[in-house]
Amino acid sequence: MRVTRACRWPVPRRPRIGTFALGLTAALSACAVGPDFRAPNAPATAQYTSERQPTATAQARALPTSQGEAQTFATDVDVPADWWTRFGSPPLNALVAQALADSPTLRQAEAKLREAQENYRAQAGARLLPSADLKLSGTREQVDLASFGITSVPSPGPFTLYNASVNISYTLDVFGGNRRALESLAAQVDYQRFELDAARLSLAGNVVTTALRQASVRAQRAALEGMLAAQRVQLDITQARERAGGVATLDVQNQAALVAQTEAQLPALSAQIAQYDHQLARWLGQPPGAFTSPTIDLATLQLPRTVPVGLPSTLARRRPDIRASEAMLHKASADVGVATANLYPQFTLSGSFGTQRMRTADLGDGINIWSIGMNLLQPLFRGGELRAQRRAAVAAYDAALASYQDTVLLGLAQVADAMRALEADAATLAARADAAQRAETAYRIARERYRAGGISHLALLDAQRQALDATRARLDAQGARLSDTAALWQALGGAPITAAPGDAVVAAPELVRPSNPASAPPR
């Protein structure tokens, strides 16, 4: 890895006689003008929420499964890379694995990373090493001796002059402009790598939350179909009692209307399940018509009891979108160095050696022409172009810094939102589970009393509606708690998600990076 050390040369106001000596001094010290990058400080806040940060959620005692347990927010546990496996669902794990292997979004991100790496490799060779070119030429010429005042000797006839030469050129990176340019390209590689990590995290989060919501809707549809079957049985009983003269026609019509109302809710749920299928198909790289998602039973899903939220000060190191924004800030810092180096002289060594003959067969007889030299280019007057470019680079750094700060704030807000959502989800589930349990008990009692003639048919219908509504509300709350848990895992970032087995691993080139992390931002 090359070492880049920042120089504290002042921005030149005008060309000076001592510039050449200054350049040689800088070359010997192998330094680079412009700022060395320093990552912004981590957020100083000690908690995610403005009020008391929750340490645990409520427990849904009426739901005797893991989904009713309280969740603990831990600050001393690392976020795992494969966080979705904590839900204990092999079909869910298979969905994520297939998405990581086949998603076009990830292939696009991987291709962009390879592009950035190859751009870096191309520029690393061009900027750090001399260039050498072989030149072969043939020129048809004729010399008029009379034009030189020689009239006593006749001018020779036309002849061909062949030339073979090797031209070498090397630009001395006196003020580190080339190294800063490579540092900028290296930051671009980092950006694309973190973008790939972010794409994997986002893809896994989208697949998991969609699959969990689909499981909740499937459970609601199953509950609706179960209640519909019971309502149809009750309709048959009511019709039989009407024929026997035991109930009025009004009771039959009311029961039939309830059956129709329940049936009317099924198409919307089926359409919602199909739409979730279509979303999953896209993320898994398949056309909707060729994909059917596996059935994930809501009741078998495990709710992670411990969620490692960590500290706000560590979020910037965990979330790949924040790391990507930091890489763009690094790139902007290096670009300031490039713009600063453009204000200083540029030194270029050049040389050429070769042979010039009358016949191609004689080109290998030895070198008979050569040259070597050094060029100095000092900008004198560009109409303010170079200084304006440097001011623009500093402004771009300021914009990148503001963008980074906004990305950090967004990450903190998303974690805070997800924690509050889980806190509310637990309380909601506790209330809805209790309500569903009581409504089911009330419906069972209502059926028994109706058979005994103790209540009216309208009272039975009301108990049926309440039991169905309460059950669907509980299932919706279970799905919300699971999907919001996945959303919190996603918001926390954590260890990078590795490539799927069999995927090509994108190798990283050796990058030029700064060595002085304590320097100030550019100004």
UniProtKB/TrEMBL annotation:
Gene3D superfamilies: Outer membrane efflux proteins (OEP). Residues 412-439 form a coiled coil. Keywords: Coiled coil, Lipoprotein, Membrane, Palmitate, Signal, Transmembrane, Transmembrane beta strand. It holds the Pfam family OEP. It is found in: Cell membrane. The keyword Coiled coil applies. Belongs to the outer membrane factor (OMF) (TC 1.B.17) family. NCBIfam families: outer_NodT. This is ABC transporter permease.
